[in-house]
Design brief:
mainly alpha, 0% strand, single chain, 221 residues
């Protein structure tokens, strides 16, 4: 590719790439929440598509809104069933039983047991629901066993994040399916190498606490 053409492509992509800067910069700086960042990104992306790239026309909005409603409905339906299942788990006091079981184990056994529990819950619950149900009960147990709070938080988040791409309730799988039009089973098949990479990353974070604590400690947290 000629250098002149490559430079033009880079310059043409900058307005769109600024979406990432706006989202992450706004959330990290505290200007707006993650939810508000989504709304702002939609408005910004719409303006860039209409005014900069001139690819989006007013007549396209009807089809865009239709696709958005269908995609939102898919996610909302999954979340509703996951929420009902989460209520059932809480009602049956499953987290308390897990806390009693894990609390009686040694620190060396607690961590893999906690990770397995999160990975199982992450496949059936949305991450937010799993956090609300499990964390308040098992957090004191982790502190009693000498686990660093920052490390505990990172292990929790990364394990539950893996649930986002794990069937049967992996939200990202169904969003990807709705956007691409591909069956979930094909997406799962293509994600196999990434499952292995994500699992390796989770294990590394779990058994190398300095990865989670070094930067916050250096900043005084």
């Amino acid at each position: 590719m000629p250098l002149r053409e490559a430079a033009f492509i880079v310059l043409d992509a900058i307005p769109g790439l600024l979406t990432v800067v706006i989202i992450i910069g706004g959330v990290v700086s505290g200007v707006f929440t993650a939810t508000e960042a989504g709304a702002i990104a939609v408005v910004y992306g719409t303006l860039v598509s209409m005014l900069v790239h001139r690819e989006l026309k007013v007549r396209d909005f009807r089809e865009i809104l239709k696709d958005s409603v269908v995609l939102t409905g898919v996610v909302a339906l999954i979340l509703s069933f996951a929420g009902a299942f989460g209520w059932l788990i809480a009602f049956d006091r499953v987290p308390y039983a897990a806390a009693e079981l894990l609390g009686g184990l040694s620190p060396a056994v607690f961590l893999p047991g906690y990770m397995i529990l999160l990975l199982i819950l992450g496949t059936f619950l949305a991450p937010t629901e799993a956090l609300i149900i499990v964390t308040p009960i098992l957090y004191p147990v982790a502190l009693t066993l000498g686990m660093d709070p920052l490390h505990f938080g990172m292990v929790t988040i990364t394990c539950l994040a893996l649930g986002h791409i794990t069937p049967p309730v992996g939200l990202c799988l169904f969003v990807g399916s709705a956007v691409s039009g591909l069956p979930v089973k094909e997406i799962v098949r293509a994600l196999m190498p990434f499952y292995l990479a994500s699992a390796a990353a989770v294990i590394l974070i779990a058994y190398a606490p300095f990865i989670s604590t070094s930067v916050p400690r250096a900043l005084g947290f």
